Amino acid sequence: MPEPRKVIRKVIRRAVCPGSFDPVTLGHLDVIGRAAGLFDEVLVAVGTNPSKSRLFSPEERLEMLRRACADIEGVRVASFSGLLTDFCTANDVHAIVKGLRAGTDFDYELPMAHMNASLAPGVETVYLPTSAGWSFVSSSLVKEVAGFGGDISRFVPDFVREALIGRLTSGDAAGDTTGDTTGNTRGDGPAAD
Ligand code: PNS
């Protein structure tokens, strides 16, 4: 008699790195790369922060992230509208990974972690301290420095710097009214501050 085949169920540990990514910085990529080392799969998800206005459209931010993350194994890029916890449930995500630069980030993030935990109790929030070299880098400051003609080449990928300078020179701002450009919250559309 042949041995019955054993069914081995591998649990995929899947995390999300959510953010506005307007635009993606090398600080973001540091956190994303380190998250990729901790989880089997990482979804980098462009979401909507209603309290911020945007320079780049969600589609442009997605495209920049796709390019920036192309060489990081196990990472996919997605966008979502609505609640992050709904995105997590729909994509079988176990953990939300956020980078912390300073105590002010923690003060901002902690209520979100508690709210997300109450909305989706099975999803943990995991904080990674940003690497020291990126502790002062944010999308907002990078935009401000670029707006005054400062050198941002140490803080963003080259193609982001070019896009940023182009956008600031043209004077266009995307706003953030559309949210999810793929029309889904599953993150399986065009693959994954
Ligand atoms: O880079 P940001 O602006 O800090 O990213 C914030 C973002 C988009 C991750 C956050 O605003 C978010 O999760 N938005 C989705 C809507 C949501 O779930 N809101 C409740 C948060 S407790």
What can you see in these coordinates?
The structure is a single chain. The protein has 193 residues and is α/β, with parallel strands linked by helices. Helices cover 37% and strands 15% of the residues. The chain has 6 helices and 5 strands. A 5-stranded parallel beta sheet has the order 3-2-1-4-5, with helices on both faces. Strand 1, helix 1 and strand 2 form a beta-alpha-beta unit. It starts with 13 loop residues before the first strand and ends in a 23-residue tail after the last helix. The C terminus is likely disordered. The structure holds 4'-phosphopantetheine (PNS).
Quantity of strands, as a count = 5
| Envelope shape | globular
User: What is the strand content?
Assistant: 15-25%
Rg computed from alpha carbons, rounded to a whole number of angstroms: 18 Å
| Content-based structural category | alpha/beta
- Bound ions, cofactors and other small molecules, one mention each: 4'-phosphopantetheine
Strand order of the largest sheet: 3-2-1-4-5
Order of helices and strands: EHEHEHEHEHH
